[in-house]
Amino acid sequence: MKTLLHCFGFIFATFELYAQSQTFSISPGSSDAPMCPNVAKTYSVVVSPGSLPSCSYKWTAVNGYFPNNGGGSVAIGQNLTSIAVKWEDTHNGGTLQVEVSSCSNSFPSGELASKTYSIATFFGQTFPHVGSEDALGNVLRMTRSISHTAMSPS
Amino acid sequence: MRILFLVLCFSLNAWISLAQNATNEPSAVPLKRFTRTEILAGPSIITIRDNSLDQYQRSVVAFGYAIGLGKAYTISNHFKIIGRIFYERKGDKHLDAEQIYDPVTMKNVIYKDGYTVKDIYTCISVPITLGYTLGRKAQYQFEAGPFLSYTLAAAIDVSSSISNYKDYNDMTKDAKPIDFGFTLSFGTKIPFNSSNKLSVNLMSNWGIPNVLNLSTQTWRTYSLILLVGYPISNYNSEK
Fold first, then answer.
1. B110 touches chain A (CB under 8 A)
2. Which end of chain B has fewer CB atoms at under 10 Å, N or C?
3. Rg of chain B, C-alpha, whole Å
4. Chain A, 118-147: which have a CB under 8 Å from a chain B CB?
C-alpha cells in the first residue's frame, strides 16, 4: 500500500512539475530587431512543452493594430493562435498581449502572455538638408541616401 | 434606407399599375407581358471600393460569381422591367508586405506581396431594373435600377507562403444585414437553338453603404458580372 501511494505521489509530482514548467508565450520574442512600422508581421502563441489549447484567444495591441481582423487593436477568435500586426510609426514601442478563455480542456482560462517590441522609426525627426547650418556654423554640403530593399517571395 | 424602400415601392407600384393598364388597353402589337424565366449565372470581377490601401499594399484582380433567376415584364416594344435574384460572391483581393526576422542578419526583412488577403462578401442580391431595347434584328438592351442585397457572410481569408500563416476571420457578426446600391447593365440575346435564345449581359453593381459595422474598415462593394441567361420555362406555362 505504501509503495502504491509512493508511486501515485511520484506520478502526481511529475505531472505537477510538468504543468508548472509549461510556458505560454508570444513568438517571435521581443529580443528581435526593432519592428518596421506599417509592415505586417505574424505573431503566434507558443506553449512549451505541449500543444496549443483549444480556447478563445483575445489579442490586444498597444501602438499597433490587426489589419486582417477588422483593423482594430483588439481581436478575439476561437483558436486564433496566430495574428498579423502592423505597428504604428511611433517612438513609444508596441505591446502585444494575448489572453485565453473558455478553453475546452484543462488549460487555465485567463492565462496571459505579453511582449513589448521596439519600433524602428524616424517619426518626428528632422534631418539637415544641403545648405543648412548647425550650431557650430558647419554647413551641410552633400547628403547620402539610405535605401531599403524589399524582397519578393521565392 | 428609407429612400431605397421608397424607390423599390415606387418601382413595384409602377410595375403593377402598368400591368393593370396593359390588360385594360389592347395593344396594337401583341406582346408577351411576362418573359420566360431565365436561369442566370456568370463570373464577375469584384472589388471593394474605398478599401484604403497603404503604401505596402496593392490591389489585384479578384473574381467572384453570381447565380440565380431572372424574369422581365414587357411594358412596350422598347421598355421592360427586369427582376432578378442572385446568390452572389463579392469582395476583393490584395497583397501586403510582410516582415520576417532573419536570424542570420539579425534584421527584419520586408517581403513585398508576402500576404495574400481576400475579402469575401456573399449575399442574396435583388436588382430591379428598367430596360430599354434598341435595334430590330439584333437587339441590345440597356438597364438601370436599384439593387438590394441581404448579407449571408463576410470574411477575411489571409495566407502567407513565407511564414506559412493562414487565417480565416469570420466577419459576419461585423457586417450589416443589408447592402444596397444601383445597377447598370448592357446586354443582348444570342440565338441558341430554334426556340431559345441566350441572354448575355454585362452588369455592374455599385454598393453605396459601408457593409461593415466597423469604424476601422470600410467595405463598399462593386461587381462587374458577365451574366448568361437561359430560359427554363415556356410561354404556355406562364400568363
1. yes
2. C
3. 22
4. 120
